[in-house]
Amino acid sequence: MKILVIGGGGREHTLVWKIAQSSLVEKIFCCPGNAGISELAECIAVPAGGFQELKDFCLQKTVDLTIVGPEQPLVDGIVDQFTAAGLKIFGSNKAASILEGSKIFAKQFLARHNIPTASFRSFSSAASAAEYVKSTAGPWVVKADGLAAGKGVVICQEQSLALDTITSMMEQEQFGLAGKSIVIEECLQGEEGSFIVLTDGETIMPLASSQDHKPVFDGDQGPNTGGMGAYSPAPVLEGPMSQKIMTKIIQPTISGLAAEGIKFKGVLYAGLMIVDNEPFVLEFNVRFGDPETQPILTRLKSDLVPLLLASVEGNLADFSPEWRPESSILVVLAAGGYPGKYEKGKVISGLETLATEKDIIVFQAGTKISDGATVTSGGRVLGITALAETLPLAREKVYQAVEKVHFDQVHYRTDIGMKALKYLE
Ligand code: AMP
Ligand code: GLY
């Protein structure tokens, strides 16, 4: 088979790494890819002609399956366009992707179907949003309705921050049109987890559980990022909790969408808060998580390609994935200043020392080749993944590996996976 992967981050490097191990696959293209991906796939530039040109590329190269990494192309309807051209593509169609594309839709959908989530109000006028904040007690969670590259959520302990956030999202258009409407939610206290499933619209196949670390600094301090590290399995979602999440959240979501005329195919990712042993939906994504995909797919023993194909073709019920029992953990190495302003073009050293180590895998994100060297070209530069028998051993192993890679002003969290340790005692 020939496969095209769309995207160029750590998640896509992981997808390409896993797909490259499939005996079904003879050639991988990636658009746009990155330095790490270029070792496994032929990277192609993002075409100026958009989906139309990408479609022509797939027809011309006889690509058998396209796999979409990020949310934007899904929300923009790439799946509908490829499908109409007779091309196989893995992911959710435009109608289903609204679950991630609009927080207001997602919250109203959850409410319509009695699926547990934080209580909320939605606003399309800054004045009414401000009035609401002034008349209620905080903390408030203010969310831009549309896509904001993971930065559209602000947790506001102080009324002044809530009011400023409303102004910058709705009036100053910090996120463009994505923030013209907002949701203000109750702030939930608990432990987060990522519950990610594959579905063909009928069968639901849960993937291994995982937990992300969004704030930039240790102890969940500082602003949110795209994710600074993750591990799998995540004990907070294991055991009876996993069944509870399926029954109370995932199944009603897929069947609720079906009742509204939307057949959901692809990845459904529920970002959850576990409060007093009950799961609540914080957000839905319609794609693999980044960085959760790194620990999840490094634990997947089965070939990924037949599973993705089965989601497209509607025979997921014929498969059951096998998982490695080990713990997998990923630590992100970020550029100095990220998630704020950061510099690019720093030379990365030490990667070759990890290349031969067993169960240590480097997934690159913001990297490119310049004058023969791998240099930084993004905020989340790369992630180092380690697998070991237990999470504490995997933590030890990953941080030893992290020490061996360097670039100017590198920073990373030192507490990835710590929240799980209390369950393991
Ligand atoms: P989201 O993009 O909706 O997942 O939000 C980003 C992050 O904000 C989440 O991972 C949580 O850490 C936090 N968050 C979102 N909604 C809430 C909420 N209602 N209560 C507490 N924290 C939240
Ligand atoms: N890890 C967060 C996300 O993929 O949205």
TrEMBL record:
Keywords: ATP-binding, Ligase, Nucleotide-binding, Purine biosynthesis. Pathway: Purine metabolism; IMP biosynthesis via de novo pathway; N(1)-(5-phospho-D-ribosyl)glycinamide from 5-phospho-alpha-D-ribose 1-diphosphate: step 2/2. Its cofactor is Mg(2+); Mn(2+). Residues 107-313 form the ATP-grasp domain. The keyword DNA repair does not apply. Its EC number is 6.3.4.13. This is Phosphoribosylamine--glycine ligase. It comes from candidate division CSSED10-310 bacterium. The lineage of its organism: Bacteria, Bacteria division CSSED10-310.
